[in-house]
């Protein structure tokens, strides 16, 4: 019997080629979207899953006087880890991580620069389960002047030579010798911690590191099993009160994030330098929801087409029932056909996934693969999912078709009924409501991303090349600047401690306005060369730029308008010009010489923070900014590289265009916009496939009516409008439902941006017209085909 069911199912699929193809392609696209998103969600949730449980990261909430709002940071103070372990039985062990980027290592005549090296506490390898390939990695974090390097670093530095016991040198602020004690496996790509070597943090400890107040490293704790994290956090105010000066306890709060939540749950945490490929969990959930909607739309197509073609199977049902088949047997047969169709769709879906995965990996910067053979559980899961899709798609058509009464259907009295037509209309409306909603969301997401990329930030970021400096190359900055400045390809050279578009550091400062008492407050700081404002074309609202020489008043400071407003909040009505010459700055107060207009030195997700800029070249710089003249990028880059090699022989030349850096700032937003856009396109494509199938069926069933109308004088245009009008009405209703839903969702989403576009009616109208146009194009093929058919052929049997 099963074999017979299979034969009949295959014959019906082959007989109704168009509807079968529509169902298979639609289901395949929906399945492929779900599989790809499932792979992405699984990859995201796999971050740090290979480590043990009960690991948490210590974070701070900082709320300093003068800051517009409190901020969460992933950094912590140096003494916190040891103090927490000593004072709280919940803490079983701790490790702190100090990182150095572009770390130089030398072995003999060979010098390499590795991306990132960690200095850690001895329990680092007991808390985290990174694998050791050769040697003793634990000794590297126990003993000073020992180091464990990764496999990739070993190949760069030693080639095929055994690195164990070899001595390498690091030439930085001080020359340090390390003995290699181990080779470790490269950090997995789904680890938030990416390193190329580790060595002992206590081995470089200095007295100033033990002071409370400085936040410059990450602290991780291993808690006792069963620890109530909320109850543990409730003890932290007392901990801070014990160790901080009374006047500072109100500036800080401590909270903890489980390690498994750090990767996807820390998007509101700044200064989160070690969180590799951080991605918002809300975006991941959004992708999963949309992919599920796309799959549901594909299932709806099957239900629509199956119930619409019920009359074609009516006599088959009547004959089967008359010779003894019961309703469960018939329902089982129809469900079997649906599952067969789903399995065929799965094969096509797997092919589609293999084709699109390289593009998805390139877009998401992940390294996902489809583990069909390497992970049997994955294959079992998608097979079960396919069967479920078949059941969901086919349960209603199976029950509907198996309910026909043989006496009626064998007489030709098949009642499709108004309720069945109403259900199909509701399903079509549901399909297009989802598709229109996603189209509107995509348009707004793309417009917001374009707005962020094109909005004038208040400074020049085009044709600006940034070059990182370290302790060695930074000492040669003045020579590098001098040799660059004389060339006609170069429009300006300057430097700073931080790069625009990155999270800038905060610092405490003092301010004295006329005879008022000295006020302590905190703000974002930017340490720059004296010509920074000129190179970046940052506009002054009052005062003047930095002097080229140190003045008798000490350090010169320039504040932004937001900071000026904060400084004058106790002097309502005072003009910002009154701040010029006022005492301001670090412990030895300098003066405010200028006020710049607010500029967006960070992402447009955030408001412009209170900022002060100071010319302090003796502290050293970490970034050179070279402004090149338009139309000569290639020649200018070659000249800069040659000059760099002359000034810093043996040092690699690394550069980045500032606008590319800002594109990286908005990388996650760009990924979200593209993925949502792709899913929206799939939703509209599948909806149109269903609409095409229903239009084909409608034209086929009304073929004699069309013939009569043509004989009576109806034009092709009349016929097309007759066949298309009903479906266009459904699309219009879909728009009416989708509009308020999309407005609400987009309004909530745009709140996450301090600077955002307005929600305009024009976008909704545009999407409505586009959706109607797409529907008309989809329907018109069948409508025109039916309208131009010869009525003699359709009426000759009458």
TrEMBL record:
Transmembrane spans: 21-43, 286-305, 330-357, 377-401, 422-446, 675-698, 719-741, 753-777
Residues annotated as domain ABC3 transporter permease C-terminal: 289-406, 678-790
Name this polypeptide is given: ABC transport system permease protein
Localisation: Cell membrane
UniProt domain MacB-like periplasmic core: residue ranges: 20-237, 462-637
Keywords: Cell membrane, Membrane, Transmembrane, Transmembrane helix
Membrane topology per record: Multi-pass membrane protein
């Amino acid at each position: 019997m099963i074999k017979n069911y299979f034969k009949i199912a295959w014959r019906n699929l082959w007989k109704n080629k168009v509807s079968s193809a529509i169902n298979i392609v639609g289901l395949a696209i929906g399945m492929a979207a779900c599989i790809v998103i499932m792979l992405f969600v699984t990859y995201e949730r796999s971050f740090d899953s290979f480590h043990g449980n009960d690991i948490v990261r210590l974070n701070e909430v900082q709320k300093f006087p003068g800051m517009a709002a409190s901020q969460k940071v992933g950094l912590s103070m140096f003494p916190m880890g040891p103090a927490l372990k000593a004072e709280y039985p919940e803490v079983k062990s701790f490790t702190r991580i100090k990182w150095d980027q572009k770390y130089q290592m030398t072995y003999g005549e060979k010098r390499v620069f590795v991306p990132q090296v960690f200095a850690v506490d001895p329990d680092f390898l007991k808390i985290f389960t990174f694998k050791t390939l050769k040697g003793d990695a634990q000794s590297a974090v126990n003993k000073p002047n020992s180091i464990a390097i990764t496999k990739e670093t070993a190949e760069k530095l030693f080639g095929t030579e055994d690195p164990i016991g070899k001595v390498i040198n690091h030439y930085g602020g001080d020359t340090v010798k390390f003995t290699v004690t181990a080779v470790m496996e490269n950090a997995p790509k789904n680890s938030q911690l990416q390193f190329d070597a580790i060595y002992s943090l206590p081995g470089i400890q200095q007295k100033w590191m033990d002071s409370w107040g400085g936040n410059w490293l990450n602290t991780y704790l291993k808690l006792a099993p069963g620890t109530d994290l909320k109850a543990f956090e409730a003890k932290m105010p007392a901990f801070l009160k014990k160790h901080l000066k009374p006047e500072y306890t109100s500036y800080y709060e401590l909270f903890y994030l489980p390690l498994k939540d750090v990767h996807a749950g820390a998007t509101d945490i700044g200064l989160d330098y070690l969180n590799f490929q951080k991605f918002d969990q809300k975006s991941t959930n959004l992708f999963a929801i949309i992919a599920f909607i796309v799959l549901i739309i594909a299932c709806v197509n099957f239900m629509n087409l199956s119930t619409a073609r019920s009359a074609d199977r009516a006599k088959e049902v009547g004959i089967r029932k008359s010779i003894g088949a019961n309703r469960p047997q018939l329902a089982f047969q129809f469900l079997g056909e649906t599952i067969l169709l789903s399995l065929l769709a799965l094969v096509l879906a797997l092919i589609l996934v293999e084709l699109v995965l390289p593009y998805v990996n390139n877009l998401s910067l992940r390294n996902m693969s489809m583990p069909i053979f390497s992970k049997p559980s994955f294959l079992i899961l998608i097979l079960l999912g396919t069967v479920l899709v078949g059941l969901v798609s086919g349960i209603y058509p199976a029950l509907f078709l198996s309910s026909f009464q043989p006496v009626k259907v064998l007489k030709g009295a098949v009642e499709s009924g108004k309720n069945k037509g109403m259900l199909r209309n509701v399903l079509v409306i549901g399909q297009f409501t989802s598709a229109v909603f996603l189209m509107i969301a995509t348009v707004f997401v793309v417009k917001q991303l374009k707005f962020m990329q094109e909005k004038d930030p208040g400074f020049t970021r085009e044709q600006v090349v940034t070059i990182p400096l370290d302790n060695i190359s930074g000492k040669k900055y003045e020579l590098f600047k001098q040799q660059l400045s004389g060339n006609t390809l170069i429009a300006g050279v300057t430097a700073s401690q931080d790069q625009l578009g990155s999270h800038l550091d905060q610092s405490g400062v003092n301010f004295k306005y006329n005879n008022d008492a000295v006020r302590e407050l905190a703000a974002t700081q930017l340490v720059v060369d004296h010509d920074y404002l000129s190179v970046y074309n940052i506009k002054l609202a009052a005062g003047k730029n930095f002097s080229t020489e140190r003045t008798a008043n000490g350090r010169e400071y320039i504040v932004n308008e937001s900071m000026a407003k904060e400084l004058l909040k106790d002097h309502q009505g005072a003009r910002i010009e009154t701040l010029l010459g006022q005492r301001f700055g670090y412990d030895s107060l300098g003066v405010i010489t200028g006020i710049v207009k607010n500029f967006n030195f960070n992402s447009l997700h955030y408001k412009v923070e209170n900022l002060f800029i100071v010319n302090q070249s003796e502290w050293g710089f970490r970034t050179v900014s070279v402004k090149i003249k338009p139309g000569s990028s290639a020649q200018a880059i070659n000249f800069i590289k040659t000059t760099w090699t002359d000034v810093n022989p043996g040092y690699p030349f690394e550069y980045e265009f500032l606008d590319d850096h800002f594109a990286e700032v908005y990388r996650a937003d760009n990924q979200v916009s593209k993925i949502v856009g792709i899913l929206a396109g799939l939703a509209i494509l599948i909806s149109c496939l269903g609409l095409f199938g229903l239009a084909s069926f409608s034209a086929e069933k009304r073929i004699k009516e069309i013939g009569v109308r043509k004989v009576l004088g109806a034009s092709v245009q009349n016929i097309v409008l007759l066949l298309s009008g009903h479906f266009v009405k459904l699309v219009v209703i879909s728009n009416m439902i989708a509009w308020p839903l999309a407005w609400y969702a987009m309004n909530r989403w745009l709140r996450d941006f301090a600077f955002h576009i307005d929600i305009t009616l024009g976008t909704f109208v545009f999407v409505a017209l586009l959706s109607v146009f797409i529907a008309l194009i989809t329907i018109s093929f069948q409508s025109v085909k039916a309208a131009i058919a010869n009525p003699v052929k359709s009426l000759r049997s009458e």
